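Q: I'm building a small set of examples for a reading group on sequence design. Run inverse folding on the following structure and report the sequence directly after it, with nothing in between.
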């Protein structure tokens, strides 16, 4: 099977897997565990930006960032709030209904692309940051994972990097996703210098904990072994 064939097959499979998912409010921002995990991710991401990447408020507005699997545009809105300029933001989304919603939420100067990410024409070394959030855990074809990772790496300019957020364990109740351990991230980006932060209290635990009191999220999350996700900064050397 050619790379184009398995890319097309995986894209069809992803659409089918998303179509099978039941509509639920488990990820609604009205739920305390959702907003707490979101705030935690944003806080740790800012720490990476300032302490590892060396970004400042002045430099953020000049960064070019591409969100692979931008969904309804929520993460792009977050980056706008941090101070990135809309004309420097781009997003790619496979599902048409999501990209259409994103277009209604975001400024017109944000570039949005509909289609399969590895087939999207993005200029080589044109981005300071390429971001993905829980995309690779939805890709069950290892070859396609590798191809997309290579594409993403090619889009990053020397001195920039991949900002990665995904879960590291399999979900036994959902065969349509697969955890991506940190070792697999290292295999996908062998040339990158990877900084890893473990975060996000396991959702089944966070839901139960927040039913008692939202403060229980932080108490349970103090135990690293209960955290199910990794936030990684995968830096590309200036010499690459």
């Amino acid at each position: 099977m050619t790379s184009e064939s398995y890319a097309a097959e995986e894209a069809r499979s992803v659409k089918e897997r998303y179509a099978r998912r039941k509509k639920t409010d488990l990820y609604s921002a009205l739920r305390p565990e959702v907003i707490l995990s979101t705030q935690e991710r944003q806080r740790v991401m800012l720490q990476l930006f300032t302490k590892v990447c060396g970004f400042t408020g002045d430099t953020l507005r000049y960064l070019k960032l591409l969100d692979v699997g931008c969904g309804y545009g929520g993460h792009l809105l977050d980056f706008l709030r941090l101070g990135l300029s809309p004309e420097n933001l781009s997003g790619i989304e496979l599902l048409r209904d999501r990209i259409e919603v994103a277009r209604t939420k975001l400024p017109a100067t944000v570039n949005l692309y509909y289609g399969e990410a590895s087939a999207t024409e993005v200029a080589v070394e044109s981005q300071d940051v390429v971001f993905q959030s829980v995309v690779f855990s939805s890709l069950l074809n290892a070859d396609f994972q590798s191809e997309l990772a290579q594409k993403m790496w090619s889009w990053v300019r020397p001195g920039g990097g991949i900002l990665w957020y995904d879960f590291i364990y399999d979900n036994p109740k959902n065969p349509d996703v697969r955890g991506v351990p940190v070792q697999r991230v290292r295999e996908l980006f062998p040339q990158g210098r990877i900084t890893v932060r473990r975060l996000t209290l396991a959702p089944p635990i966070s839901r139960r904990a927040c039913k008692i009191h939202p403060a229980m999220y932080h108490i349970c999350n103090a135990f690293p072994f209960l955290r199910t996700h990794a936030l990684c900064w995968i830096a590309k050397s200036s010499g690459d």
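The radius of gyration is 17 Å.
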